[in-house]
Design brief:
8-stranded parallel β-barrel, two-stranded antiparallel ribbon, 11 strands, 14% strand, alpha/beta, 16 helices, TIM Barrel, binds 2-acetamido-2-deoxy-beta-D-glucopyranose
């Protein structure tokens, strides 16, 4: 009997023991995520300050594929009631949203707290809680106040103090109702991608000095915001705080490239995880050495990745209550050949490591140029993280894929099935403690440089309609069933296994 007929037989007899166990543990948390700039609109509503994304999309509309911007986006600034209703329709246990720093603090500083900004997030948080949905709040999802960018933004070490002042306002205003906090979303994008590609906001190229100043400042800002919560808010509110990393899983192209793949993982993930989650703290030693060697060859007499002092290492180490993982895609990695040029992140090449990346032919492509489908990558990533940082709690804080417009999004369902199956294998076979999962994203939104043309939503949004009507896709139905049953229905992918 082949595999397929076994599955069919088991289904008919309703015998679960002879098929894979596809049930998530009781209490597993299901959510969906959005980010302020991608959905809110209301870019100049009331006293809101300008963000780096407002500035980029207005001054450089040509940098956005379809010349759109986030001025209105999904208009969630006005349509938040409908967003809550959708979260309820899906049966979400939590909704991951981000706060716009310049909406809450128009000057970037806490000298003035916007009354309307405060009311907006209070309404959203209270509305979710009324429906039994937990708000899961990110403080920073890329929309830095332009006023702070003008002072150097993430390359100025003072940004850690500016950030912690903002975090204090958010914890003070919302901490009584928010139990899950992400300080900073995807340092890899904020630093490495921004300063080495020039395709995101702020459009500043500084792949060497700027990117690495940013790396240290982001880690320090996170640590300060974590320590503040730990000391002043946790005793009252008992919440959990972490940072969300972006993960690209690197596979060696050939066995000889294993060491290079490991270094690439440290460059992508370890840079922002080792200081916080490892037992020893500080930069990943192999990466610090590789970068040191590279930059001294470039003629720099001082380390370009700013070293941590011993005091800073202690201060940063352990500043987490769980591990938050955003993951979409993978790369094959190999040494560069003579004369080859490097594509900056997010394609994953690393000039400092002399490393080039490729797509395995079996990994299907998506509309997003950086995005290839490789479900096994998420399992391998989870296992790697557990090996590196121990048996800690993991929450998948973003996962999903882009598709064309249209309601019958079987390729999105396929993606969720395959990635969730790999997450289950990581949990059941490899003992990785994953306690929650977040679909990216609740609804189509402003997808950064891809504008409105690239659809990631469980709900379709009609951007031509002033009412921004939201309609559930087939995947919304799939996801709500998954949440209801807490069990993965493999459906059509069963035949492929
Ligand atoms: C807000 O921005 C829109 C363009 O998105 C513009 O038409 C409107 O005049 C601006 N409102 C204010 C108060 O500046
Ligand atoms: C997973 O982590 C959660 C949160 O720390 C904990 O309550 C739970 O006991 C852990 N589960 C396992 C199987 O270790």
């Amino acid at each position: 009997m082949n595999r397929k007929s076994i599955v069919v037989l088991c289904t008919v007899l309703a015998v679960t023991s002879c098929v894979e166990d596809l049930t998530f543990p009781p209490g597993f948390l299901w959510g969906a995520a959005t980010a302020a700039y991608q959905v809110e609109g209301g870019w100049n509503a009331s006293d809101k300050g300008e963000s780096v994304w407002d500035r980029l999309s207005h001054e450089h509309p040509e940098m956005i594929t379809d010349l759109t911007n986030g001025d209105v986006a999904c208009d969630s600034y006005h349509l938040w009631r409908r967003d809550i209703e959708m979260a309820k329709e899906l049966g979400l246990q939590f909704y991951r949203l981000s706060i716009s720093w310049p909406r809450l603090l128009p000057s970037g500083f806490p000298n003035h707290i916007s009354e309307d900004g405060k009311n907006y997030y209070n309404n959203l948080i209270d509305g979710l809680l009324e429906k039994g949905i937990e708000p899961f709040v990110t403080l920073y999802h890329w929309d830095l106040p332009q006023s702070l960018q003008d002072l150097g933004g993430w390359t100025n070490p003072l940004v850690a103090d500016w950030f912690v002042d903002y975090a204090r306002v958010a914890y003070t205003l919302f901490g009584d109702r928010v139990r899950w906090w992400i300080t900073i979303n995807e340092p890899l994008i904020i630093c490495d991608v921004v300063y080495s590609s020039g395709i995101l906001a702020p459009p500043i190229m500084s792949p060497e000095v700027g990117a690495h100043l940013c790396s240290k400042n982001v880690v320090m800002a996170h640590a300060k915001a974590y320590r503040l919560y730990d000391e002043e808010f946790r005793p009252k509110y008992h919440g959990k705080v972490s940072l969300a990393n972006h993960h690209i899983w690197f596979e060696p192209l050939s066995p000889a490239d294993a060491e290079l793949a490991e270094l690439a993982r440290e460059n992508c993930v370890g840079k922002y995880a080792h200081p916080i989650y490892s037992k020893v703290g500080g930069w990943p030693p192999a990466l610090e050495k590789a970068l040191g060697d590279y930059y001294s060859k470039q003629g720099y007499s001082k380390p370009i990745l700013p070293p941590f002092t011993q005091k800073e290492i202690e201060y940063v180490r352990g500043t987490f209550d769980f591990y938050a993982l955003n993951q979409y895609t993978s790369r094959l990695i190999r040494p560069a050949r003579e004369g080859e040029t490097f594509e900056p992140w997010p394609l994953g090449d690393a000039i400092q490591l002399n490393a080039k990346t490729e797509r395995d032919e079996s990994w299907s492509t998506t509309l997003s140029f950086w995005f290839f489908v490789h479900p096994e990558g998420i399992r391998r990533q989870l296992v790697w993280l557990k090996q590196q940082y121990g048996d800690i709690e993991f929450v998948v804080t973003e996962n999903g894929r882009s598709t064309q417009a249209g309601l019958d999004d079987q390729d999105r369902i396929d993606y969720y099935r395959k990635y969730l199956r790999q997450i289950l294998l990581a949990m059941k076979e490899d003992g990785v403690n994953v306690t929650g999962y977040t679909a990216w994203t609740l609804m189509d939104n402003f997808e950064w440089m891809d504008g409105l043309s690239n659809k990631f939503g469980l709900y379709e949004v009609d951007f031509n309609d002033p009412l921004r009507t939201r309609t559930p896709r087939a995947s919304a139905n799939f996801y709500s069933n998954l949440i209801k049953t807490n069990t993965l229905d493999l459906g059509t992918i069963q035949d492929e296994l």
